[in-house]
């Protein structure tokens, strides 16, 4: 019989403090692979949350339930850098018998790191993948990508369905919480609300996410396009974004 402990992992979500990640590894296993629970991993519905839950938060709980005994612990962002539902998810995971290490960002954590990927000439999907990888390893690349002037912008969080990112040109700049992550300041509301003036920008949020409030306000202020979706991106949303990018 296979021993599930032989391939155990350490889960995390949001942008936990690296000190919290380090402490969790010291406690549960220094060599345990880190698994981002925010992303779609094809986990079945755990049934633990209502259908109107933000899809990213649902991913966290569904992924944790699907990993089962393989999951040694979860390092959970529960402060201003995440959301109340992130805090609630940590509570729910504990109720399911999962060890949880909570992480809250503090002012002294807010060291501003240079932006390498957010303004690079790269496919947007790769750009966001590279930025989210800095949560675990913030080391600058040996060969930094070439920067570019923005022709378009994507504001928001990494979507559940990455297909929307494939519509954007390589000269798209990343704004919103994604930009905050690369800067090492996930709770910086002023930076999160920054976009370059006159750059046609899509303001994206998952349905039922509190960031919809910011997305709609900023889209109106900057004459951008506010988009939200719950699970997979449908053809209507793809067509709307594609038309906005072309016409702008």
How is the topology of this model organized?
Elements lengths: L8 E5 L4 H11 L5 E3 L18 H13 L3 E7 L6 H12 L4 E4 L20 H10 L18 E4 L16 E4 L1 H7 L5 H4 L8 E6 L4 H12 L2 E5 L5 H13 L1
Parallel strand pairs: 1-2, 1-3, 3-4, 5-6, 5-7, 7-8
Helix pairs in contact: 2-3
Structure report:
This protein is of the alpha/beta class and 248 residues long. The chain contains eight helices and eight strands. It has helices at residues 18-28, 55-67, 84-95, 124-133, 177-183, 189-192, 211-222, 235-247, and strands at residues 9-13, 34-36, 71-77, 100-103, 152-155, 172-175, 201-206, 225-229. The strands form two sheets. Strands 2-1-3-4 form a four-stranded parallel sheet, sandwiched between helices. It has a four-stranded parallel sheet with strand order 6-5-7-8. The radius of gyration is 18 Å and the shape is globular. Mean pLDDT is 93; it is low at 1-5.
- Determine the strand fraction and express it as a percent band: 15-25%
Number of DSSP helical runs: 8
- Uncertain parts: 1-5
User: Sheet with the most strands?
Assistant: 4 strands, parallel
Secondary-structure element order, as H and E? Answer: EHEHEHEHEEHHEHEH
**Overall mean pLDDT:** 93
Shape: globular
Helix share bin: 25-40%
Ends apart, CA distance between termini: 59 Å
> How many strand segments?
8
| Order of neighbouring strands in the sheet with most strands | 2-1-3-4
CA-atom Rg in angstroms: 18 Å
